[in-house]
Write a structure and sequence with these properties.
The complex is a heterodimer.
Chain A lengths: L1 H35 L21 H8 L4 H34 L6 H8 L1 H4 L2 H11 L7 H7 L15 H25 L4 H9 L4 H28 L4 H7 L10 H11 L3 H31 L1
Helix pairs in contact in A: 2-13, 3-8, 3-10, 3-12, 6-8, 6-11, 8-10, 8-11, 12-13
Chain B lengths: L1 H41 L3 H5 L20 H4 L7 H32 L5 H11 L4 H19 L7 H25 L3 H9 L4 H12 L1 H17 L2 H6 L7 H4 L11 H21 L1 H12 L3
Helix pairs in contact in B: 1-13, 4-7, 4-10, 7-10, 7-14, 8-9, 10-14
Classes of the chains: A mainly alpha, B mainly alpha.
Amino acid sequence: MKITRLNNRAAAFLIGPALTAMFVVHLIPIFFGIIMAFLRIDVSNLSDFPRVPFIGFDNFKYLFTDGSGVGQRFLSSIGNVLIYGLVTIPVGYVIALAVAMLLNREFKGRTIVRGLILLPYITPDAVMYNVWRFIFQSRVGIVNSILSGLGLIREPIIWLVGDNALIAVIVASIWKGWPFTSLMLLAALQTIPQDLYEAARLDNASWFQRLRYVTLPMLWPVSRTLLMLSVIWNFHAFNQFYVMLGADTASKAAVPSVVILREAFGTLHFGSGSAMAVIMLAIILLLTAIAVFTKRERSVE
Amino acid sequence: MNFNIVKRRRANSKFWNVLFVAAIILVVASVLFPYLWMISGSFKRTIEIQSADYTKPGQEPSLIPRQPTLENYQRINRTVPMLRYLRNSLIISIGTMILAVFISLFAAYALSRLEFRFKRLYELTIYSTQMFPGIAFLIPYFILFTAITRLTGIKLKDTYYGLILTYTSFALPFCILMMKSYLDSIPKSLDEQALVDGCKRPAIIFRIILPLVKPGLVSVGIFAFIMAWNEMLFASVLTGRDTKTVSLGLMEYITTNQARWGGMMAACIVVSIPVLILFTTLQKQIIDGLIKGAVKE
Protein backbone atom coordinates (compact mmCIF):
# COMPACT_ATOMS: atom_id res chain seq x y z
CA MET A 1 0.00 0.00 0.00
CA LYS A 2 2.68 2.40 1.03
CA ILE A 3 4.79 1.59 -1.99
CA THR A 4 1.91 2.22 -4.36
CA ARG A 5 1.28 5.64 -2.87
CA LEU A 6 4.93 6.49 -3.07
CA ASN A 7 4.99 5.47 -6.71
CA ASN A 8 1.93 7.54 -7.45
CA ARG A 9 3.70 10.59 -6.15
CA ALA A 10 6.95 9.86 -7.95
CA ALA A 11 5.02 9.18 -11.14
CA ALA A 12 3.13 12.43 -10.79
CA PHE A 13 6.42 14.31 -10.61
CA LEU A 14 7.90 12.43 -13.53
CA ILE A 15 5.00 12.60 -15.93
CA GLY A 16 3.93 16.03 -14.71
CA PRO A 17 5.74 18.07 -17.36
CA ALA A 18 4.67 15.79 -20.20
CA LEU A 19 1.12 15.76 -18.93
CA THR A 20 1.04 19.55 -18.62
CA ALA A 21 2.31 19.98 -22.17
CA MET A 22 -0.26 17.51 -23.41
CA PHE A 23 -3.10 19.35 -21.68
CA VAL A 24 -2.00 22.81 -22.69
CA VAL A 25 -1.20 22.08 -26.31
CA HIS A 26 -3.45 19.18 -27.22
CA LEU A 27 -6.36 18.39 -24.94
CA ILE A 28 -7.57 21.82 -23.84
CA PRO A 29 -7.41 23.30 -27.36
CA ILE A 30 -9.18 20.28 -28.87
CA PHE A 31 -11.95 20.55 -26.31
CA PHE A 32 -12.13 24.29 -26.85
CA GLY A 33 -12.11 23.83 -30.63
CA ILE A 34 -15.11 21.53 -30.52
CA ILE A 35 -17.02 24.13 -28.52
CA MET A 36 -15.96 26.86 -30.91
CA ALA A 37 -17.59 25.06 -33.80
CA PHE A 38 -20.92 25.85 -32.13
CA LEU A 39 -20.26 29.52 -31.35
CA ARG A 40 -20.62 32.61 -33.48
CA ILE A 41 -17.04 33.65 -33.09
CA ASP A 42 -15.13 36.06 -35.29
CA VAL A 43 -12.62 38.86 -35.00
CA SER A 44 -15.13 41.31 -33.55
CA ASN A 45 -16.00 39.30 -30.44
CA LEU A 46 -12.78 37.37 -30.02
CA SER A 47 -11.72 39.41 -26.99
CA ASP A 48 -15.12 39.07 -25.35
CA PHE A 49 -14.96 35.34 -25.32
CA PRO A 50 -17.35 34.27 -22.51
CA ARG A 51 -20.22 36.20 -24.07
CA VAL A 52 -19.92 34.78 -27.57
CA PRO A 53 -23.37 33.47 -28.56
CA PHE A 54 -24.07 29.78 -28.90
CA ILE A 55 -25.59 29.09 -32.32
CA GLY A 56 -25.98 25.33 -32.52
CA PHE A 57 -25.19 23.91 -35.93
CA ASP A 58 -25.29 27.23 -37.75
CA ASN A 59 -21.59 27.11 -38.54
CA PHE A 60 -22.05 23.75 -40.23
CA LYS A 61 -25.09 25.04 -42.13
CA TYR A 62 -23.17 28.13 -43.13
CA LEU A 63 -20.56 26.01 -44.88
CA PHE A 64 -23.08 24.85 -47.44
CA THR A 65 -25.41 27.84 -47.68
CA ASP A 66 -22.84 30.61 -47.94
CA GLY A 67 -22.18 31.94 -51.41
CA SER A 68 -18.42 31.58 -51.04
CA GLY A 69 -18.74 27.83 -51.68
CA VAL A 70 -16.37 26.94 -48.85
CA GLY A 71 -18.35 23.79 -48.05
CA GLN A 72 -17.97 22.54 -51.61
CA ARG A 73 -14.27 23.26 -51.53
CA PHE A 74 -14.00 21.43 -48.23
CA LEU A 75 -15.77 18.36 -49.61
CA SER A 76 -13.62 18.28 -52.71
CA SER A 77 -10.53 18.72 -50.51
CA ILE A 78 -11.55 15.59 -48.60
CA GLY A 79 -11.89 13.85 -51.96
CA ASN A 80 -8.41 15.06 -52.91
CA VAL A 81 -6.83 13.79 -49.75
CA LEU A 82 -8.53 10.42 -50.25
CA ILE A 83 -7.23 10.08 -53.82
CA TYR A 84 -3.83 11.26 -52.65
CA GLY A 85 -3.78 8.58 -49.95
CA LEU A 86 -5.16 5.83 -52.16
CA VAL A 87 -2.25 6.33 -54.55
CA THR A 88 0.56 7.40 -52.24
CA ILE A 89 0.16 4.72 -49.58
CA PRO A 90 0.04 1.53 -51.73
CA VAL A 91 2.64 2.71 -54.25
CA GLY A 92 4.92 3.91 -51.48
CA TYR A 93 4.50 0.61 -49.65
CA VAL A 94 5.31 -1.52 -52.69
CA ILE A 95 8.44 0.50 -53.49
CA ALA A 96 9.47 0.37 -49.84
CA LEU A 97 9.00 -3.39 -49.68
CA ALA A 98 10.87 -4.00 -52.94
CA VAL A 99 13.84 -1.94 -51.82
CA ALA A 100 13.82 -3.47 -48.35
CA MET A 101 14.04 -6.91 -49.95
CA LEU A 102 16.91 -5.78 -52.16
CA LEU A 103 18.76 -4.42 -49.15
CA ASN A 104 18.12 -7.54 -47.10
CA ARG A 105 20.92 -9.20 -49.07
CA GLU A 106 24.55 -8.88 -48.09
CA PHE A 107 26.53 -6.88 -50.61
CA LYS A 108 29.41 -4.48 -50.71
CA GLY A 109 28.31 -0.94 -49.97
CA ARG A 110 25.04 -1.91 -48.35
CA THR A 111 25.50 0.47 -45.43
CA ILE A 112 26.15 3.33 -47.83
CA VAL A 113 23.05 2.55 -49.88
CA ARG A 114 20.99 2.29 -46.72
CA GLY A 115 22.29 5.67 -45.60
CA LEU A 116 21.61 7.22 -49.00
CA ILE A 117 18.03 6.07 -49.24
CA LEU A 118 17.35 7.69 -45.88
CA LEU A 119 18.30 11.10 -47.25
CA PRO A 120 14.76 11.95 -48.42
CA TYR A 121 13.39 11.15 -44.98
CA ILE A 122 15.79 13.40 -43.11
CA THR A 123 16.01 16.32 -45.52
CA PRO A 124 13.57 19.01 -44.36
CA ASP A 125 10.14 18.93 -46.02
CA ALA A 126 10.30 22.56 -47.07
CA VAL A 127 13.62 21.96 -48.84
CA MET A 128 12.61 18.90 -50.79
CA TYR A 129 9.13 20.04 -51.76
CA ASN A 130 10.57 23.31 -53.01
CA VAL A 131 13.07 21.35 -55.09
CA TRP A 132 10.22 19.26 -56.52
CA ARG A 133 8.31 22.43 -57.21
CA PHE A 134 11.30 23.60 -59.23
CA ILE A 135 11.57 20.23 -61.00
CA PHE A 136 7.90 20.42 -62.03
CA GLN A 137 8.00 24.00 -63.34
CA SER A 138 6.52 23.80 -66.81
CA ARG A 139 9.09 25.95 -68.60
CA VAL A 140 12.24 26.00 -66.49
CA GLY A 141 11.79 22.61 -64.81
CA ILE A 142 13.39 19.38 -65.88
CA VAL A 143 10.40 17.02 -66.04
CA ASN A 144 8.96 18.49 -69.22
CA SER A 145 12.42 18.67 -70.68
CA ILE A 146 12.98 14.95 -70.07
CA LEU A 147 9.51 14.00 -71.32
CA SER A 148 9.97 15.93 -74.53
CA GLY A 149 13.46 14.52 -74.92
CA LEU A 150 11.89 11.06 -74.84
CA GLY A 151 9.38 12.23 -77.41
CA LEU A 152 6.43 11.77 -75.05
CA ILE A 153 5.07 15.30 -75.13
CA ARG A 154 4.89 18.13 -77.66
CA GLU A 155 3.41 20.94 -75.61
CA PRO A 156 4.78 21.68 -72.13
CA ILE A 157 2.57 20.22 -69.41
CA ILE A 158 1.48 22.63 -66.71
CA TRP A 159 2.06 20.58 -63.60
CA LEU A 160 1.38 22.67 -60.55
CA VAL A 161 -1.89 24.31 -61.52
CA GLY A 162 -5.11 22.52 -62.45
CA ASP A 163 -5.65 18.84 -63.02
CA ASN A 164 -2.04 17.73 -62.90
CA ALA A 165 -1.26 19.34 -59.56
CA LEU A 166 -2.28 16.29 -57.56
CA ILE A 167 -0.03 14.06 -59.70
CA ALA A 168 2.98 16.27 -59.05
CA VAL A 169 2.38 16.31 -55.29
CA ILE A 170 1.83 12.55 -55.25
CA VAL A 171 5.13 11.90 -57.03
CA ALA A 172 7.01 14.16 -54.62
CA SER A 173 5.30 12.63 -51.57
CA ILE A 174 6.02 9.08 -52.61
CA TRP A 175 9.66 10.00 -53.19
CA LYS A 176 9.83 11.60 -49.72
CA GLY A 177 7.85 8.93 -47.88
CA TRP A 178 8.94 5.47 -48.97
CA PRO A 179 12.42 5.44 -47.37
CA PHE A 180 11.01 5.53 -43.85
CA THR A 181 8.65 2.64 -44.57
CA SER A 182 11.45 0.77 -46.25
CA LEU A 183 13.71 1.11 -43.24
CA MET A 184 11.02 -0.25 -40.94
CA LEU A 185 10.32 -3.16 -43.28
CA LEU A 186 14.03 -3.91 -43.58
CA ALA A 187 14.32 -4.07 -39.80
CA ALA A 188 11.39 -6.47 -39.71
CA LEU A 189 12.77 -8.58 -42.58
CA GLN A 190 15.96 -9.11 -40.65
CA THR A 191 14.06 -10.70 -37.81
CA ILE A 192 12.49 -13.41 -40.01
CA PRO A 193 14.22 -16.69 -39.16
CA GLN A 194 16.10 -18.13 -42.15
CA ASP A 195 14.84 -21.66 -41.42
CA LEU A 196 11.43 -20.64 -42.70
CA TYR A 197 12.93 -19.91 -46.11
CA GLU A 198 14.98 -23.11 -46.00
CA ALA A 199 11.86 -25.12 -45.28
CA ALA A 200 9.99 -23.37 -48.07
CA ARG A 201 12.85 -24.07 -50.45
CA LEU A 202 12.82 -27.76 -49.54
CA ASP A 203 9.13 -27.78 -50.43
CA ASN A 204 10.12 -26.39 -53.83
CA ALA A 205 8.29 -23.16 -53.17
CA SER A 206 8.83 -20.59 -55.92
CA TRP A 207 10.08 -17.09 -55.23
CA PHE A 208 6.53 -15.79 -55.42
CA GLN A 209 5.25 -18.46 -53.05
CA ARG A 210 7.97 -17.66 -50.54
CA LEU A 211 6.93 -14.01 -50.72
CA ARG A 212 3.25 -14.85 -50.40
CA TYR A 213 3.46 -17.46 -47.64
CA VAL A 214 6.53 -16.49 -45.64
CA THR A 215 7.64 -12.89 -46.11
CA LEU A 216 4.32 -11.06 -46.24
CA PRO A 217 2.72 -12.85 -43.26
CA MET A 218 5.85 -12.29 -41.19
CA LEU A 219 5.83 -8.59 -42.09
CA TRP A 220 2.15 -8.18 -41.38
CA PRO A 221 2.39 -6.79 -37.81
CA VAL A 222 4.80 -4.04 -38.86
CA SER A 223 2.98 -3.40 -42.12
CA ARG A 224 -0.33 -3.07 -40.34
CA THR A 225 1.06 -0.47 -37.93
CA LEU A 226 2.74 1.44 -40.74
CA LEU A 227 -0.31 1.39 -42.99
CA MET A 228 -2.60 2.41 -40.17
CA LEU A 229 -0.36 5.34 -39.29
CA SER A 230 -0.08 6.42 -42.92
CA VAL A 231 -3.82 6.30 -43.44
CA ILE A 232 -4.31 8.55 -40.42
CA TRP A 233 -1.34 10.84 -41.07
CA ASN A 234 -2.49 11.13 -44.63
CA PHE A 235 -5.28 13.39 -43.44
CA HIS A 236 -2.70 15.67 -41.84
CA ALA A 237 -0.97 16.26 -45.19
CA PHE A 238 -0.08 19.90 -45.36
CA ASN A 239 3.57 20.71 -46.05
CA GLN A 240 3.74 19.17 -49.52
CA PHE A 241 0.55 20.89 -50.68
CA TYR A 242 1.37 24.21 -49.06
CA VAL A 243 4.89 24.33 -50.50
CA MET A 244 4.19 23.01 -53.99
CA LEU A 245 0.80 24.56 -54.65
CA GLY A 246 0.61 27.46 -52.19
CA ALA A 247 -2.38 28.38 -50.04
CA ASP A 248 -4.70 28.64 -53.01
CA THR A 249 -7.94 26.93 -52.02
CA ALA A 250 -9.37 27.24 -55.52
CA SER A 251 -6.67 24.82 -56.62
CA LYS A 252 -8.04 21.51 -57.78
CA ALA A 253 -5.68 19.79 -55.38
CA ALA A 254 -6.42 21.72 -52.18
CA VAL A 255 -6.45 19.58 -49.03
CA PRO A 256 -8.54 20.06 -45.86
CA SER A 257 -5.69 21.59 -43.82
CA VAL A 258 -5.21 24.29 -46.45
CA VAL A 259 -8.93 25.00 -46.83
CA ILE A 260 -9.39 25.28 -43.04
CA LEU A 261 -6.28 27.41 -42.66
CA ARG A 262 -7.57 29.86 -45.28
CA GLU A 263 -11.07 29.96 -43.85
CA ALA A 264 -9.85 30.67 -40.33
CA PHE A 265 -6.82 32.87 -40.90
CA GLY A 266 -7.43 34.21 -44.40
CA THR A 267 -11.07 35.20 -44.18
CA LEU A 268 -11.06 35.14 -40.35
CA HIS A 269 -14.13 32.92 -40.06
CA PHE A 270 -13.04 31.08 -36.93
CA GLY A 271 -16.45 29.49 -36.37
CA SER A 272 -16.84 27.83 -39.75
CA GLY A 273 -13.13 26.95 -39.72
CA SER A 274 -13.65 25.14 -36.43
CA ALA A 275 -16.73 23.40 -37.82
CA MET A 276 -14.63 21.93 -40.64
CA ALA A 277 -11.88 21.02 -38.18
CA VAL A 278 -14.44 19.14 -36.09
CA ILE A 279 -15.65 17.22 -39.14
CA MET A 280 -12.08 16.26 -39.90
CA LEU A 281 -11.46 15.21 -36.33
CA ALA A 282 -14.57 13.04 -36.48
CA ILE A 283 -13.35 11.33 -39.65
CA ILE A 284 -9.98 10.60 -38.07
CA LEU A 285 -11.50 9.34 -34.84
CA LEU A 286 -13.70 7.03 -36.89
CA LEU A 287 -10.70 5.70 -38.81
CA THR A 288 -8.74 5.20 -35.59
CA ALA A 289 -11.67 3.41 -34.00
CA ILE A 290 -11.93 1.08 -37.00
CA ALA A 291 -8.19 0.41 -36.86
CA VAL A 292 -8.22 -0.32 -33.12
CA PHE A 293 -11.34 -2.43 -33.45
CA THR A 294 -9.98 -4.62 -36.26
CA LYS A 295 -6.75 -5.02 -34.34
CA ARG A 296 -8.59 -6.24 -31.25
CA GLU A 297 -10.73 -8.54 -33.36
CA ARG A 298 -7.62 -10.15 -34.76
CA SER A 299 -5.90 -10.66 -31.45
CA VAL A 300 -9.06 -12.27 -30.05
CA GLU A 301 -8.92 -14.78 -32.87
CA MET B 1 24.63 -33.48 -66.98
CA ASN B 2 25.25 -32.52 -63.42
CA PHE B 3 27.91 -30.19 -64.74
CA ASN B 4 25.37 -28.59 -67.04
CA ILE B 5 23.03 -27.75 -64.21
CA VAL B 6 25.82 -26.11 -62.27
CA LYS B 7 26.79 -24.14 -65.33
CA ARG B 8 23.26 -23.05 -65.95
CA ARG B 9 22.82 -22.06 -62.35
CA ARG B 10 25.96 -20.01 -62.53
CA ALA B 11 24.81 -18.23 -65.68
CA ASN B 12 21.45 -17.76 -64.07
CA SER B 13 22.91 -16.28 -60.91
CA LYS B 14 25.12 -14.02 -62.99
CA PHE B 15 22.03 -12.72 -64.74
CA TRP B 16 20.31 -12.08 -61.40
CA ASN B 17 23.39 -10.36 -60.06
CA VAL B 18 23.43 -7.95 -62.98
CA LEU B 19 19.74 -7.30 -62.49
CA PHE B 20 20.32 -6.79 -58.77
CA VAL B 21 23.05 -4.24 -59.33
CA ALA B 22 20.91 -2.48 -61.92
CA ALA B 23 18.02 -2.29 -59.46
CA ILE B 24 20.24 -0.85 -56.74
CA ILE B 25 21.61 1.73 -59.15
CA LEU B 26 18.09 2.68 -60.20
CA VAL B 27 17.04 3.15 -56.58
CA VAL B 28 20.07 5.24 -55.69
CA ALA B 29 19.73 7.32 -58.85
CA SER B 30 16.09 8.14 -58.25
CA VAL B 31 16.84 9.08 -54.66
CA LEU B 32 19.73 11.29 -55.66
CA PHE B 33 18.22 12.93 -58.73
CA PRO B 34 16.38 15.79 -56.94
CA TYR B 35 19.54 16.51 -54.96
CA LEU B 36 21.57 16.80 -58.15
CA TRP B 37 18.95 19.16 -59.57
CA MET B 38 19.08 21.22 -56.36
CA ILE B 39 22.88 21.41 -56.37
CA SER B 40 23.06 22.24 -60.05
CA GLY B 41 20.37 24.90 -59.69
CA SER B 42 22.27 26.55 -56.87
CA PHE B 43 25.25 27.13 -59.18
CA LYS B 44 23.27 28.46 -62.14
CA ARG B 45 23.07 32.08 -63.12
CA THR B 46 19.60 33.60 -62.84
CA ILE B 47 19.61 34.32 -66.56
CA GLU B 48 20.26 30.67 -67.36
CA ILE B 49 17.31 29.51 -65.28
CA GLN B 50 15.01 32.29 -66.47
CA SER B 51 15.67 31.68 -70.15
CA ALA B 52 15.58 27.90 -69.93
CA ASP B 53 13.30 26.45 -72.58
CA TYR B 54 13.45 22.88 -73.77
CA THR B 55 12.14 23.72 -77.19
CA LYS B 56 15.16 25.89 -77.98
CA PRO B 57 18.42 24.02 -78.57
CA GLY B 58 21.19 25.32 -76.38
CA GLN B 59 18.73 26.62 -73.80
CA GLU B 60 17.28 23.39 -72.47
CA PRO B 61 17.24 23.09 -68.68
CA SER B 62 20.37 21.05 -68.03
CA LEU B 63 21.81 19.27 -65.06
CA ILE B 64 25.22 20.85 -65.59
CA PRO B 65 25.31 24.64 -65.21
CA ARG B 66 26.56 26.28 -68.40
CA GLN B 67 28.37 29.05 -66.58
CA PRO B 68 28.75 27.95 -62.96
CA THR B 69 28.63 30.76 -60.45
CA LEU B 70 28.78 31.27 -56.69
CA GLU B 71 26.60 34.36 -56.73
CA ASN B 72 23.57 32.52 -55.35
CA TYR B 73 25.54 31.67 -52.23
CA GLN B 74 27.12 35.10 -51.92
CA ARG B 75 23.71 36.77 -52.16
CA ILE B 76 21.94 34.31 -49.93
CA ASN B 77 21.08 36.94 -47.37
CA ARG B 78 20.44 39.86 -49.67
CA THR B 79 16.83 39.58 -50.79
CA VAL B 80 15.63 37.20 -48.10
CA PRO B 81 17.10 37.44 -44.56
CA MET B 82 17.91 33.74 -44.67
CA LEU B 83 20.57 33.85 -41.95
CA ARG B 84 18.10 35.35 -39.51
CA TYR B 85 15.58 32.63 -40.35
CA LEU B 86 18.32 30.08 -39.91
CA ARG B 87 19.09 31.43 -36.45
CA ASN B 88 15.39 31.37 -35.52
CA SER B 89 15.06 27.78 -36.67
CA LEU B 90 18.19 26.73 -34.78
CA ILE B 91 17.02 28.33 -31.53
CA ILE B 92 13.55 26.82 -31.80
CA SER B 93 14.73 23.37 -32.86
CA ILE B 94 17.51 23.10 -30.29
CA GLY B 95 15.17 24.36 -27.56
CA THR B 96 12.60 21.75 -28.57
CA MET B 97 15.25 19.06 -28.68
CA ILE B 98 16.54 19.73 -25.14
CA LEU B 99 13.10 20.02 -23.58
CA ALA B 100 11.73 16.97 -25.38
CA VAL B 101 14.70 14.82 -24.36
CA PHE B 102 14.34 15.53 -20.64
CA ILE B 103 10.57 15.57 -20.43
CA SER B 104 10.30 12.32 -22.37
CA LEU B 105 13.05 10.70 -20.29
CA PHE B 106 11.12 11.41 -17.08
CA ALA B 107 7.77 10.33 -18.47
CA ALA B 108 9.20 7.22 -20.09
CA TYR B 109 10.98 6.31 -16.84
CA ALA B 110 7.67 6.44 -15.00
CA LEU B 111 5.98 4.34 -17.67
CA SER B 112 8.78 1.81 -17.77
CA ARG B 113 9.54 1.47 -14.05
CA LEU B 114 6.61 2.53 -11.94
CA GLU B 115 3.11 1.35 -11.34
CA PHE B 116 0.71 4.19 -10.84
CA ARG B 117 -2.94 5.03 -11.07
CA PHE B 118 -4.33 5.85 -14.53
CA LYS B 119 -1.19 4.48 -16.17
CA ARG B 120 -3.18 2.69 -18.87
CA LEU B 121 -5.30 5.76 -19.49
CA TYR B 122 -2.20 7.92 -19.75
CA GLU B 123 -0.57 5.58 -22.23
CA LEU B 124 -3.72 5.50 -24.32
CA THR B 125 -3.88 9.31 -24.35
CA ILE B 126 -0.28 9.46 -25.58
CA TYR B 127 -1.14 7.17 -28.46
CA SER B 128 -4.25 9.10 -29.34
CA THR B 129 -2.68 12.58 -29.28
CA GLN B 130 -0.51 11.40 -32.15
CA MET B 131 -3.65 10.93 -34.19
CA PHE B 132 -4.99 14.47 -33.76
CA PRO B 133 -4.55 16.48 -36.92
CA GLY B 134 -2.74 19.73 -36.20
CA ILE B 135 -5.39 21.71 -38.00
CA ALA B 136 -8.00 20.50 -35.50
CA PHE B 137 -6.41 22.44 -32.67
CA LEU B 138 -4.59 25.21 -34.50
CA ILE B 139 -7.57 27.58 -34.42
CA PRO B 140 -8.41 27.23 -30.70
CA TYR B 141 -4.70 27.20 -29.86
CA PHE B 142 -4.24 30.49 -31.65
CA ILE B 143 -7.24 31.97 -29.86
CA LEU B 144 -5.98 30.72 -26.47
CA PHE B 145 -2.63 32.35 -27.17
CA THR B 146 -4.41 35.59 -27.97
CA ALA B 147 -6.57 35.33 -24.85
CA ILE B 148 -3.65 34.57 -22.56
CA THR B 149 -1.72 37.51 -23.94
CA ARG B 150 -4.70 39.78 -23.41
CA LEU B 151 -5.30 38.59 -19.85
CA THR B 152 -1.76 38.36 -18.54
CA GLY B 153 0.25 40.50 -20.91
CA ILE B 154 2.59 37.60 -21.63
CA LYS B 155 3.40 37.51 -25.30
CA LEU B 156 3.19 34.01 -26.79
CA LYS B 157 2.74 34.47 -30.51
CA ASP B 158 5.90 35.26 -32.39
CA THR B 159 8.12 34.25 -29.46
CA TYR B 160 10.71 31.52 -29.25
CA TYR B 161 9.31 29.99 -26.07
CA GLY B 162 5.77 29.90 -27.46
CA LEU B 163 6.95 27.85 -30.41
CA ILE B 164 9.30 25.69 -28.36
CA LEU B 165 6.44 24.76 -26.02
CA THR B 166 4.25 23.95 -29.01
CA TYR B 167 6.79 21.81 -30.82
CA THR B 168 7.96 20.04 -27.69
CA SER B 169 4.43 18.97 -27.11
CA PHE B 170 4.11 17.74 -30.71
CA ALA B 171 7.28 15.71 -30.43
CA LEU B 172 6.55 14.24 -27.01
CA PRO B 173 4.21 11.33 -27.80
CA PHE B 174 6.61 9.66 -30.22
CA CYS B 175 9.63 10.61 -28.06
CA ILE B 176 8.08 9.04 -24.96
CA LEU B 177 7.27 5.81 -26.77
CA MET B 178 10.75 5.67 -28.30
CA MET B 179 12.45 6.41 -24.98
CA LYS B 180 10.32 3.84 -23.19
CA SER B 181 11.50 1.06 -25.46
CA TYR B 182 15.12 2.06 -24.74
CA LEU B 183 14.44 2.05 -21.00
CA ASP B 184 12.65 -1.29 -21.20
CA SER B 185 15.86 -2.80 -22.58
CA ILE B 186 17.81 -1.79 -19.46
CA PRO B 187 17.46 -4.40 -16.68
CA LYS B 188 15.17 -3.25 -13.91
CA SER B 189 17.28 -5.00 -11.29
CA LEU B 190 19.79 -2.21 -11.76
CA ASP B 191 17.64 0.53 -10.32
CA GLU B 192 15.93 -1.77 -7.85
CA GLN B 193 19.36 -2.48 -6.39
CA ALA B 194 20.14 1.22 -6.25
CA LEU B 195 16.82 1.86 -4.54
CA VAL B 196 17.65 -0.76 -1.91
CA ASP B 197 21.02 0.91 -1.43
CA GLY B 198 19.18 4.07 -0.54
CA CYS B 199 19.56 5.96 -3.79
CA LYS B 200 16.90 8.57 -4.45
CA ARG B 201 14.89 8.50 -7.71
CA PRO B 202 16.48 11.62 -9.22
CA ALA B 203 19.92 10.20 -8.52
CA ILE B 204 18.95 6.92 -10.15
CA ILE B 205 17.70 8.66 -13.26
CA PHE B 206 20.64 11.02 -13.64
CA ARG B 207 23.51 8.83 -12.42
CA ILE B 208 22.50 5.33 -13.48
CA ILE B 209 19.91 5.53 -16.25
CA LEU B 210 21.11 8.60 -18.11
CA PRO B 211 24.54 7.23 -19.07
CA LEU B 212 22.97 3.95 -20.19
CA VAL B 213 20.35 5.45 -22.48
CA LYS B 214 22.66 7.82 -24.33
CA PRO B 215 21.75 6.31 -27.72
CA GLY B 216 18.09 6.77 -26.84
CA LEU B 217 18.66 10.41 -25.88
CA VAL B 218 20.36 10.97 -29.22
CA SER B 219 17.57 9.43 -31.30
CA VAL B 220 14.86 11.20 -29.38
CA GLY B 221 16.72 14.49 -29.61
CA ILE B 222 17.16 14.21 -33.35
CA PHE B 223 13.59 13.23 -33.90
CA ALA B 224 12.46 16.30 -31.97
CA PHE B 225 14.93 18.51 -33.80
CA ILE B 226 13.81 17.36 -37.25
CA MET B 227 10.17 17.68 -36.27
CA ALA B 228 10.63 21.29 -35.20
CA TRP B 229 12.79 22.10 -38.22
CA ASN B 230 10.09 20.75 -40.57
CA GLU B 231 6.90 22.10 -39.05
CA MET B 232 5.03 24.59 -41.24
CA LEU B 233 1.34 24.63 -40.36
CA PHE B 234 1.64 26.15 -36.89
CA ALA B 235 4.66 28.17 -37.93
CA SER B 236 2.61 29.84 -40.65
CA VAL B 237 0.24 31.19 -38.02
CA LEU B 238 2.30 31.53 -34.84
CA THR B 239 5.58 32.94 -36.13
CA GLY B 240 6.02 36.52 -37.15
CA ARG B 241 8.70 39.02 -37.96
CA ASP B 242 10.94 37.95 -35.08
CA THR B 243 10.64 34.19 -35.25
CA LYS B 244 9.99 33.17 -38.85
CA THR B 245 11.60 29.79 -39.49
CA VAL B 246 13.56 28.64 -42.53
CA SER B 247 10.77 26.37 -43.74
CA LEU B 248 8.57 29.40 -44.34
CA GLY B 249 11.41 31.71 -45.25
CA LEU B 250 12.40 29.55 -48.21
CA MET B 251 9.11 30.36 -49.91
CA GLU B 252 10.04 34.04 -50.01
CA TYR B 253 12.48 33.50 -52.86
CA ILE B 254 9.51 33.07 -55.15
CA THR B 255 7.23 36.09 -55.31
CA THR B 256 4.63 37.08 -57.85
CA ASN B 257 7.18 39.43 -59.38
CA GLN B 258 10.26 37.31 -59.38
CA ALA B 259 11.23 33.65 -59.21
CA ARG B 260 14.72 33.36 -57.73
CA TRP B 261 15.11 29.62 -58.12
CA GLY B 262 18.91 29.76 -57.98
CA GLY B 263 18.85 31.66 -54.71
CA MET B 264 16.26 29.28 -53.33
CA MET B 265 18.30 26.21 -54.23
CA ALA B 266 21.40 27.68 -52.58
CA ALA B 267 19.34 28.42 -49.47
CA CYS B 268 17.89 24.90 -49.57
CA ILE B 269 21.40 23.47 -49.38
CA VAL B 270 22.44 25.75 -46.53
CA VAL B 271 19.26 24.90 -44.61
CA SER B 272 19.79 21.15 -45.03
CA ILE B 273 23.34 21.23 -43.72
CA PRO B 274 22.59 21.16 -39.96
CA VAL B 275 20.27 18.20 -40.38
CA LEU B 276 22.66 16.37 -42.69
CA ILE B 277 25.59 16.83 -40.30
CA LEU B 278 23.51 15.52 -37.42
CA PHE B 279 22.44 12.58 -39.50
CA THR B 280 25.73 11.47 -40.96
CA THR B 281 27.52 11.58 -37.62
CA LEU B 282 24.79 9.70 -35.80
CA GLN B 283 23.30 7.51 -38.50
CA LYS B 284 23.36 4.32 -36.50
CA GLN B 285 21.57 5.69 -33.46
CA ILE B 286 18.97 7.40 -35.59
CA ILE B 287 18.12 4.21 -37.44
CA ASP B 288 17.97 2.24 -34.19
CA GLY B 289 15.79 4.87 -32.60
CA LEU B 290 13.35 5.07 -35.48
CA ILE B 291 12.93 1.32 -35.46
CA LYS B 292 12.47 1.23 -31.69
CA GLY B 293 9.87 4.00 -31.77
CA ALA B 294 7.81 2.80 -34.69
CA VAL B 295 8.02 -0.96 -34.85
CA LYS B 296 6.47 -1.77 -31.54
CA GLU B 297 3.61 -3.99 -30.82
